[in-house]
């Protein structure tokens, strides 16, 4: 036995020992959080046991009372499980059927008999001080059977899932991991060489967490399921210490809780290899790696979800789908290529659409939740980060067919006719909005399930509606109820008394950072009238019916409002005006010498954005207000001249930039003299003291004679 690591834990919040068991539960149920080479774990069974005595053990009625039948994980958590404390815990790792569930009762019975008199060292290791001196209550332990699932990757050798018995000594703060292996006859037994234990100790008003290995000289590490001892004693121990004293409660479920993790890991790696070339030919301005691998992950989730649905329903035909607001269309392309008939609809065509081929059906049109059966033949309606249509997806399903299902990945916070307004301050805005979408789904008659995807996005909780809460015969009654609900969510009746239409609400601007294909902002016009108008292909489209009053989708042409389209002379005028404000009021000094040795250089003063704005004329301010970010965006875009920090504007001193560059790793450093000087130095032309840097150190040209066009050639994109 050897201790491979120990760390002291400060507990100002008094969270220990409960926090320790919360941290253990993270490692037990979500090992991929600490070990990135794992995909997850599945907890299969749990039971309470009693260890044998050292001098000999035999089952008796009292012991049998302390060893109830095995509890499957669906029966509820045990004393050391995820319900005790946070971080977020709970059942993890997919569904039954990934791996044959072993009989925990028989496994533990065989292991207990092996300890009976023949292995006192292991018995002492499990009990920390031996079983002899313990009262009967403290000889009771909880054991959990889990399957650890490695991540499928071309970089690591193929490793099959492994099972472990995890023994939790609640009374004495120790948890032991007993890996199982098959013998020559195919029977499972404990692999003694790789047994390790995590302990919590309290000594002299200090808490300590340590990791011990039962047989350090025989430890076998494969680098995936069995890390090296230093990793256990350093990396894992540091994470456990941190989790033990974190007093925060997660609002979301564990990832991939509704599907098989094992199937997901294998399918994701296959799709990633299949579609990774899309990163090299990505023609959009968005980050290719982020969007390609995100769509691959979403497609993998849907494919596994639909595969399991077909198995449940006993059908073989692959589900059809429609993706509303499909954006770049890659999700549609992947699902279609994998054999699912469907199409994608978006208000704007993307460059990448031409690369997919005729088998991928994409349409440039406005997706409106009309009061008809526009999508009646589709099995699933998908909304992935679309925005305005998230709450309408339920009504789209209702007007499609009784068997239609939905998959929603909410992103931006919209109500039926405008920006969603918060109602509960005790929840985060994201959690409250998810609950609102679930409320809409339930009111519309769906059983709504929630899951968390593994995608590179902060908005990764999906909502799924696979079945209805009412029979088909109750459709008229439910339809009346949901119509009243949707009308109430619009905040005003369709008509006022006397037949007059209600007054229109103002335009509502809603931020939309993080959209699926890079949308930043959109406008929603709220009009509580019996009919709404939208523009499609340059003409007004009349949309009628009670579902849509007030809905207005984003415009086909997205307006750029980041000051980039402002006239160059207007931008130069504002830059000069602001620079004069910052440089004013100080005695101007003569220019520096050509060798760059500065006696004095006027760096100006700093002014707040409000102070700068107060000095600009009304017409200039009005023009800037029509741009997103206004004055601040224009000044940030003028990076060569200004630095905006904490709401204050400064003249940029390029000597500081040189110092920052020296602090970078040598591999990232590039002398300014090697830069292609494609722009004239603003300070050389306009600053009273000239440029703070000599010509050979400045990244900009000191006069037209130094201008050099960039020699970088655009990389030709190969044709897929």
Automatic annotation (TrEMBL):
Give residue ranges for domain C3H1-type. 675-705
* GO BP: any one term: tRNA methylation
Q: What class of enzyme is it?
A: transferase
In this chain, the C3H1-type zinc fingers fall at 675-705
What are the UniProt keywords, alphabetically? Answer: Cytoplasm, Metal-binding, Methyltransferase, S-adenosyl-L-methionine, Transferase, tRNA processing, Zinc, Zinc-finger
Q: Where is the composition biased (Basic and acidic residues)?
A: 61-75
- Intracellular or extracellular location(s): Cytoplasm
Entry EC no(s): 2.1.1.211
Function field: Adenosyl-L-methionine (AdoMet)-dependent tRNA (uracil-O(2)-)-methyltransferase.
Q: What PANTHER family does the annotation carry? A: TRNA (URACIL-O(2)-)-METHYLTRANSFERASE-RELATED (PTHR21210:SF0)
Spell out the protein name for this chain: tRNA (uracil-O(2)-)-methyltransferase
Source organism per entry reads: Otolemur garnettii
């Amino acid at each position: 036995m050897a201790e491979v690591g120990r760390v002291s834990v400060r507990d100002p919040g008094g969270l220990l020992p409960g926090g320790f068991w919360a941290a253990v539960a993270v490692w037990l149920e979500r090992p991929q959080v600490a070990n990135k080479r794992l995909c997850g774990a599945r907890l299969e069974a749990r039971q309470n046991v009693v260890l044998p005595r050292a001098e000999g053990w035999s089952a008796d009625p009292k012991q049998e009372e302390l060893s109830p039948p095995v509890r499957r994980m669906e029966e509820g958590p045990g004393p050391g499980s995820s319900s005790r404390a946070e971080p977020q815990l709970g059942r993890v790792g997919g569904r039954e059927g990934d791996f044959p569930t072993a009989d925990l009762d028989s496994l533990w019975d065989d292991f207990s008999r092996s300890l009976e008199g023949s292995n006192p060292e292991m018995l002492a290791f499990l009990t920390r001080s031996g079983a002899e001196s313990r009262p009967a209550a403290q000889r009771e332990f909880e054991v959990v059977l889990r399957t650890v699932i490695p991540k499928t990757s071309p970089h690591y050798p193929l490793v099959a899932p492994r099972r472990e018995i995890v023994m939790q000594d609640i009374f004495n703060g120790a948890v032991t991991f007993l890996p199982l292996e098959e013998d020559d006859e195919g029977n499972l037994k404990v692999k003694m060489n790789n047994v390790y234990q995590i302990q919590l100790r309290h000594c002299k008003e200090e808490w300590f967490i340590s990791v011990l290995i039962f047989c350090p000289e025989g430890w076998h590490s494969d680098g995936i399921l069995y890390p090296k001892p230093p990793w256990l004693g350093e990396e894992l121990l540091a994470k456990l210490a941190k989790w033990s004293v974190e007093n925060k409660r997660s609002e979301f479920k564990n990832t991939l809780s509704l599907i098989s993790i094992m199937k997901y890991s294998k399918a994701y790696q296959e799709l990633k290899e299949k579609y990774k070339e899309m990163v090299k030919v990505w023609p959009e301005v968005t980050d290719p790696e982020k969007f390609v691998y995100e769509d691959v992950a979403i497609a993998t989730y849907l494919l596994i979800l639909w595969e399991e649905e077909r198995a449940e329903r006993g059908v073989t035909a692959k589900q059809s789908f429609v993706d509303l607001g499909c954006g770049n269309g890659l999700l549609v392309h992947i699902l279609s290529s994998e054999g699912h008939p469907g199409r994608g609809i978006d208000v704007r065509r993307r460059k990448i659409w031409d690369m997919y081929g005729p088998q991928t059906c994409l349409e440039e049109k406005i997706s409106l939740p009309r009061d008809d059966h526009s999508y009646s033949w589709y099995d699933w309606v998908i909304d992935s980060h679309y925005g305005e249509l998230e709450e309408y997806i339920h009504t789209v399903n209702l007007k499609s067919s009784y068997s239609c299902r939905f998959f929603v990945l909410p992103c931006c916070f919209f109500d039926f006719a405008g920006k969603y307004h918060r109602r509960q301050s005790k929840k985060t805005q994201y959690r409250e909005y998810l609950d609102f979408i679930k409320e809409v789904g339930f009111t519309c008659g769906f059983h709504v399930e929630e899951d968390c995807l593994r995608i590179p996005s902060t908005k990764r909780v999906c909502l799924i509606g696979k079945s209805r809460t009412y029979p088909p015969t109750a459709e008229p009654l439910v339809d009346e109820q949901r119509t009243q609900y949707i009308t109430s969510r619009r905040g005003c009746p369709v008509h006022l008394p006397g037949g007059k239409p209600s007054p229109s609400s103002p335009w509502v601007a809603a931020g939309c950072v993080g959209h699926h294909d890079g949308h930043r902002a959109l406008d929603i016009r709220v009009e509580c009238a019996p009919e709404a108008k939208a523009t499609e292909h340059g003409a007004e489209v009349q949309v009628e019916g009670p579902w849509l009053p007030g809905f207005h989708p984003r415009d086909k042409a997205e307006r750029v409002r980041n000051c980039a389209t402002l006239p160059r002379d207007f931008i130069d005028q504002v830059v000069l005006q602001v620079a004069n404000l910052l440089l004013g009021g100080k005695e101007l000094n003569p220019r520096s010498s050509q060798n760059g040795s500065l006696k004095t250089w006027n760096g100006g003063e700093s002014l707040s954005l409000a102070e700068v704005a107060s000095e600009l004329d009304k017409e200039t301010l009005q023009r800037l207000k029509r741009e997103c970010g206004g004055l601040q965006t224009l000044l940030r875009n003028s990076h060569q001249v200004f630095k905006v920090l904490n709401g204050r504007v400064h003249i940029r001193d390029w000597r500081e930039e040189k110092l920052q560059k020296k602090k970078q790793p040598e591999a990232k450093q590039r002398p300014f003299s090697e830069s292609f000087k494609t722009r004239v130095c603003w300070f050389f032309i306009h600053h009273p003291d000239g440029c703070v840097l000599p010509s050979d150190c400045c990244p900009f040209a000191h006069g037209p004679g130094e201008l050099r066009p960039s020699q970088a050639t655009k990389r030709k994109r190969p044709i897929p």
